[in-house]
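Journal club prep, shared notes

We agreed each person brings one worked example of a sequence with its structure written out as tokens. Mine is N-acetyl-gamma-glutamyl-phosphate reductase. I'm keeping it raw so we can talk through how to read the token line rather than staring at a rendered picture. Sequence first:
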Amino acid sequence: MSSPIVFIDGDQGTTGLQIHERLRNRTDLRLLTLAGAERKDSRRRAEAINACDIAILCLPDAAAREAVDAIVNPAVRVIDASSAHRTRPGWTYGFPEMTRGQAERIANARRVTNPGCYPTGAIGLLRPLMEAGLIPDNYPVSIHAVSGYSGRGRAGIEEHEGECAANPPAYQVYGLELAHKHTPEIQQHAGLAQRPIFVPAYGAFRQGIVLTVPLALRLLAPDVDGARLHACLARHYAEADHVHVSPLHESGVLTHLDPRVLNGTNDMRLSVFSNIEHGQVLLSAVFDNLGKGASGAAVQNLDLMLARP
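Then the structure, token by token:
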């Protein structure tokens, strides 16, 4: 039996390049990409997407929708790395560790939408705790996250690494209108009844994310504390290959979180920090925005789908 054909549409962007790099030496599949002159030819792109077994879309949202609309071959399966379909019915959310049975749903899906980088951390922390009833669905959630500048794509890389990069900002908070496109995705897939406050930022490092969610214990049930929140996360991810929960004794001696420690991997590290005196808990997630937050997650989903042709 011939190897499955995987078409990367948009393989010259930040995510697409990394996916191509992760797959280029694989012998269990055949990569299909388009030459430079063909990338903007809608007819050639339509031919390619209908000739593959699995298409990975690394495109702007509008272009991703157009690519899906161009599919007439019912055998073609799709992994969309854009945000075009993350809250759309009929698409399977591509976060295998999110909840029980999600990896199986991805393996059998025809249409998979890759999670956003920030939502991966936020949902990874919140969804298990929501499902266990430890955080009520109407809790006023606030999320703070700092990403490497590659999260901005080519614009961020040019600003910091390009020929004209002179004095790029060391740190910049954005999304001040509180309307970041990842917020509805977080709300839906974390199981929140109301919109969270999400405050993102970019730092002067290439890649990596630290995301934090503060919790006030007075707003939770009387028997919920940091140890119980940690135990829930530890149980949920006990058998996960790519999501790890730091032991409480390790978190207890940490003085800082480095967003870059898992760069180049598809791993995510979750931690729980407690201050009993003040009745406060801080949940944190550290991962590579180009790994578990993008290309690594896409390849993880691809491998699940390839196991179920």
